[in-house]
Every structure is written in structure tokens, then in C-alpha cells.
Specification:
7 strands; alpha/beta; Trna Endonuclease, Chain: A, domain 1
Length: 396
């Protein structure tokens, strides 16, 4: 055991030393293991206590959860009952609402059906009216096309203007105040002459207004074409105004002015707007350019003049009739005066008869009451009246 086994750092070690060293190391290891086991036991005990605490807390939480679950289950049961009740009320309310809505919807549908039927009936009536209006529009279109054909022909256009002028004159003036196609002293025949009262000179009316130039003026495209058409209008209308002035203005035989009739208001407006020089030229030549409305107005003025002239012609007859009427009124006044005198005389006679009747009545009452008096006590007037009545004569 005392034998040297090894040398460490210059120190020799024997078997006993190695054994002691091993025993010490073993003890040290055992001490370390014990200490580790003690620490592990403490840790295990601590962990066991912590686990027990966690288990207790978990049990408490589970108990709280179970209690909350029970409360939640109770509340859910109450909510379920309340929900069932509310659902039943809601179902009943929805049923009532749906029934009411169905009723209102049915009534609305019936009303809408009735209204739709009425509207359809009215629509059918309006469609009939529209069909009639469309038919009339078709007829009017045909008439307008016919009018266009009439205006496109110079002869028919002149007849159209002549017809419009004659219609206006015939509607306003009496027979004898106008003549169509009359012959003047120079042999010319205007379309119409109008005779004014108190004047033997007729008023000449011409209805052959040139329209071709105006048609070209309206249909002109561009400034150059429009200027060319304007020169044509001035030339044609100027020549026609000159012809009217030369043919129908005769000193001492016709009126101092002649009338040039334009058969369309639109052409008259274009003439006044774009060709004022022609209008001024016509005025200087004493030619009055008139549209249908202006001719109507002039004819109405002439009609008033004719009526006033007739009234002046009949004024002496009216005066004679008024004079005779005054004589009749005077005679009537005299006769009424005489009748009034008769009535007054009759009224006086009736008053006297009433007075006598009153006196007789009073005497009869006195006789009935036996209130006799001596004859001497009677008044002289009463005696006279009584004697007169007895003889059948009127009282004084």
C-alpha cells in the first residue's frame, strides 16, 4: 500500500493516497449527488405545491365556469322563451301586416285596373281624335300641295290672289259698293273697283302681284344668288307698281291712290323688311301696297264710311219720323190730361156718394137706437139732403 504508484508534479503518490483520494472523490460525488437530490426534492416539492395551487385555481375557475355556464343556461332559457314569445308576436304581426298588405294590394290592383281601363278608354278616344287629326293633316297636306301647284302657275296664282281679294271685299262691303273686272274710262280693267259714297271716282284694286322673284329670293343660297334675286324682285315689283300707277290712276276719273294687293302676309313682311325702297317708290307713285289683314282693315273703314253716308242720306227721314213722334206725344199728353180731368170729376162724385152713404148710415143707427128728434131740430142741410135723396136726386 506504501508502494509508490505514480508521480504528479514531482510528488509521489502511494496506493493509500490514491485510495484516500478516490474515497474523498466518492464522498464528494455522493455529497454533490445528495445536494442535487435535495435541491431536486425542493424543486419537486415546489413544483408539486405550484401544481397543487394551479390545480386549485383551475378547480376554482372550473367551478366559476360551471356556475357561469348554469347562469348562462338559465339566461339562454329565458332568452329562448322571450325569443319564442317575440317570434310568435312577430309572426302574428307579420301575418296581419301581410294580410293587410294583400288587401291593400288587391284594392290597389283593382283601382289600378279600373284606372288603367279608364285611361285605355281615354287613350282610345284620343287615338281616334289623333287619327282624325292625322287624316285632316293628310287632307291639309294635299290642299297645301294643291296650293303649291296653284302658286307655281302664274295664271292660277293670279286667280288665287283674285279669289282672296274678292272674298275679303264681299264679306265686308254691301252689294253695289264694288264691282269686279270693271272697265275704266281708259279701257283698263282692274281686278276690283270700290265706290265710295258721295264720290263718283272709283278706287282701283289690283291683285296680280309678281311672286316668282320672291320665291327665287327665298330659295337663294349664298350672298351672290340672294343679291341677284333681290335685283330681280326690285325689277319685277317696280315694273308692276309702275303699271298699276299708269293704268289705274286717271285724273278726275279715279281716286288719287290705287291699291296693290299682296295675297300673303309673309311676302308683305319680306317686302317691308328687305325692300323699303320699293315701298317708298310705291308711295311716291300713289300706289298703296296692302296685305290681306291691311285690306280687311281698309275695307272695314270703307264700310264705316258707307254706313255713315247712308245714315246721312236717311237723316231727313229720321227727322220727319222724330217730328211725327213728337206730335203723337203731344196728342197723347192732351188726351192724358183730359182723362185725368175725368178721373178727378169721378173721384169728387165718388167722395160725395161716400159722404151721403155715411150720413144715411148714421141716421139708420139713430133710428135703430130710437133717438128721434123733432123736425125743427134737424139741420137745414140735412133736411135738404134727405129730401133730395127721397126724390132720387143727387145731393148738393
Amino acid at each position: 500500500m506504501d508502494k509508490l504508484l505514480l508521480t504528479v508534479g514531482g510528488i509521489g503518490l502511494t496506493g493509500a493516497d490514491v485510495t484516500l483520494a478516490l474515497l474523498g472523490a466518492t464522498l464528494l460525488v455522493l455529497l454533490l449527488l445528495w445536494r442535487r437530490s435535495s435541491q431536486a426534492g425542493e424543486v419537486l416539492r415546489a413544483e408539486t405545491a405550484a401544481a397543487a395551487e394551479r390545480q386549485r385555481e383551475l378547480d376554482d375557475k372550473i367551478a366559476h365556469l360551471l356556475q357561469a355556464q348554469a347562469q348562462f343556461t338559465g339566461r339562454m332559457a329565458q332568452i329562448g322563451e322571450s325569443f319564442d314569445h317575440k317570434q310568435a308576436n312577430l309572426a302574428r304581426l307579420l301575418t296581419d301586416r301581410i294580410e293587410g298588405m294583400n288587401n291593400r294590394l288587391g284594392e290597389g290592383l283593382q283601382a289600378n285596373l279600373k284606372s288603367t281601363h279608364e285611361n285605355l278608354s281615354k287613350l282610345n278616344e284620343r287615338l281616334v281624335v289623333i287619327d282624325e287629326a292625322q287624316k285632316r293633316m293628310g287632307d291639309l297636306t294635299t290642299e297645301m300641295l294643291t296650293l303649291k301647284d296653284v302658286l307655281s302657275n302664274k295664271q292660277t296664282r293670279g286667280a288665287f290672289g283674285q279669289g282672296r281679294m274678292e272674298a275679303i271685299v264681299k264679306d265686308a262691303l254691301p252689294m253695289g259698293a264694288y264691282t269686279f273686272q270693271a272697265t275704266l274710262k281708259n279701257g283698263k280693267r282692274p281686278d276690283c273697283v270700290i265706290r265710295l259714297p258721295g264720290d263718283d271716282r272709283p278706287l282701283a284694286v289690283d291683285a296680280k302681284f309678281p311672286l316668282e322673284a320672291f320665291t327665287a329670293f327665298r330659295e337663294a343660297q349664298g350672298d351672290e344668288a340672294r343679291a341677284l334675286a333681290g335685283r330681280r324682285v326690285r325689277n319685277d315689283v317696280g315694273i308692276h307698281i309702275k303699271d298699276v300707277a299708269e293704268k289705274y290712276l286717271i285724273a278726275g276719273a279715279t281716286q288719287d291712290i290705287a291699291v296693290l294687293f299682296v295675297p300673303a302676309e309673309s311676302i308683305y313682311a319680306d317686302l317691308q323688311e328687305h325692300f323699303d325702297d320699293l315701298v317708298q317708290s310705291a308711295h311716291r307713285r300713289r300706289v298703296l301696297i296692302v296685305s290681306p289683314s291691311l285690306l280687311t282693315m281698309a275695307i272695314q273703314v270703307m264700310q264705316a264710311i258707307v254706313r255713315d253716308a247712308k245714315m246721312r242720306e236717311q237723316a231727313h227721314m229720321i227727322q220727319d219720323e222724330v217730328r211725327k213722334l213728337l206730335e203723337d206725344v203731344v196728342r197723347l199728353r192732351d188726351r192724358v190730361g183730359k182723362l185725368d180731368g175725368h178721373f178727378r170729376q169721378v173721384q169728387d162724385d165718388v167722395g160725395q156718394v161716400v159722404t151721403s152713404a155715411d150720413k144715411i148710415l148714421k141716421r139708420g143707427e139713430r133710428i135703430d137706437a130710437l133717438e128721434f128728434q123733432t123736425p125743427a131740430a134737424l139741420a137745414p142741410s140735412e133736411s135738404a139732403e134727405t129730401l133730395a135723396m127721397a126724390r132720387g136726386l143727387p145731393a148738393a
